[in-house]
From TrEMBL:
The chain crosses the membrane at residues 173-193, 202-218, 238-264, 276-294. The lineage of its organism: Eukaryota, Viridiplantae, Streptophyta, Embryophyta, Tracheophyta. Residues 172-295 form the GOST seven transmembrane domain. This is Protein CANDIDATE G-PROTEIN COUPLED RECEPTOR 7. Keywords: Membrane, Receptor, Signal, Transmembrane, Transmembrane helix.
Length: 372
């Protein structure tokens, strides 16, 4: 593969990478030969700063001595990305560090002498925008090893805000939606107790689904709160992913069980329906694992693109602003309200009644299973 296709491969994920909460990240790059490494994307305000620290830097080249000015870190806005791609298309041997469209931070020429080979500096953002942080290696036939620590943040008064511009209201947003779902759960329990004769096992699962959704949002609120103020989630991300995993698997399970009429029309699942669950649940497990890898690592790992291919719709589910997050949660809440209203425990629910053709088909299927 030529150098141009490789550079395009590492630049194009910028179009897919959503704005992130710029947790303070410490990572280790080992013998990496990629021409470009995308670390993260962040929305800066006029008070934004980027702090980059590298240490234990080592460059190994099979082509002899390398020019340290051919390796370095830079910021690239989404608007400038197209211009850089055009430069690379015009001249495949062009080094992106020479582009006039990037915001060059430093090159390895600025490193302290060996054995420390380190650099640490903070850069104020003069032009508010959404930027992607890159490392570029234009030295041919070379591999790089280094320890990298990044801090991307905006100042809110004198305090650092590690949430990207547009995401600063997420903690409050998630908290209030969690309160709504807790209230929803309380109302569901009240309604089930009031209609106890019509309650089925599926209604209990639906109640568990509500509490998982509420806990998922509560953990998301705490996660974003600590990231916003300290740059680290303090373990709330673990709880968030646990409840998210349970919620997603439970949601699809409830939908499948409702679709099959389990507990409403028949006490046990048929073999075909069990197979559907055996397919759906493992796929959701894989999707959740991919989501965790994408969310907790980043494009700087070598297999990040592979995980995105395992979860092609992941990026469409990751929202860039507080406003779009609010819209998504409102849509989710509307879905839950409609679903729970349609399948609420009542004496005569039209959604649980089989018409004559369906009833005949159901009886025929039962007779066939009995004969087998």
């Amino acid at each position: 593969m030529g150098r141009l296709p490789l550079l395009l491969l590492f630049l194009l994920p910028v179009l897919l990478l959503p704005l992130t909460s710029a947790e303070i990240k410490t990572l280790k790059i080992t013998s990496d030969s990629r021409p470009m490494i995308l670390f993260e994307r962040f929305g800066f305000t006029h008070t934004g700063q980027a702090t980059i620290a590298v240490s234990s830097v080592s460059v190994v080249s099979s082509a002899g001595a390398t020019d340290p000015s051919r390796l370095g870190f830079f910021l690239l806005s989404e608007e400038s990305l197209i211009q850089v791609l055009l430069e690379l298309q015009t001249n495949p041997s062009f080094c992106v560090l020479d582009s006039k469209y990037i915001n060059l931070l430093f090159t390895f020429r600025d490193l302290s002498p060996p054995p420390a080979s380190s650099f640490n500096h903070s850069y104020p953002i003069t032009a508010p925008n959404e930027y992607s942080l890159f490392f570029a290696n234009c030295a041919p036939q070379s591999t790089v090893s280094m320890d990298v620590r990044t801090e991307l943040y905006n100042f809110d008064g004198r305090e650092k805000d590690f949430l990207s511009a547009g995401l600063t209201q997420l903690p409050t947003l998630f908290f209030w939606f969690s309160v709504i779902y807790f209230a929803f759960f309380g109302f569901w329990i009240y309604f089930c107790v009031k209609s106890i004769r019509s309650v089925h096992r599926i209604h209990m699962l639906m109640g568990v689904l509500l509490i998982m959704k509420a806990l998922n949002l509560l953990c998301a609120a705490e996660d974003k709160h600590y990231v916003k103020s300290t740059g680290t989630p303090h373990g709330w991300d673990v709880l968030f992913y646990i409840f998210q995993f349970i919620r997603v698997v439970l949601l699809f399970t409830v939908i499948v069980l409702i679709g099959t009429g389990w507990s409403f029309l028949k006490p046990v699942l048929q073999e075909r329906e069990k197979k559907v669950l055996m397919i759906v649940i493992p796929l959701q497990v894989l999707a959740n694992i991919a989501s965790i890898v994408i969310g907790e690592t980043g494009p700087f790992i070598k297999d990040w693109v592979t995980w995105n291919q395992c979860l092609p719709y992941a990026q469409s589910l990751r929202i860039s602003t507080s406003g779009s997050n609010a819209a998504e949660e409102i849509a989710n809440l509307a879905f839950y309200v409609v679903m729970f209203y349609m399948f609420r425990p009542v004496d005569k629910n039209g959604y649980f009644v089989l018409d004559e053709d369906e009833e005949a088909a159901e009886l025929a299927l039962r007779d066939e299973e009995f004969e087998l």
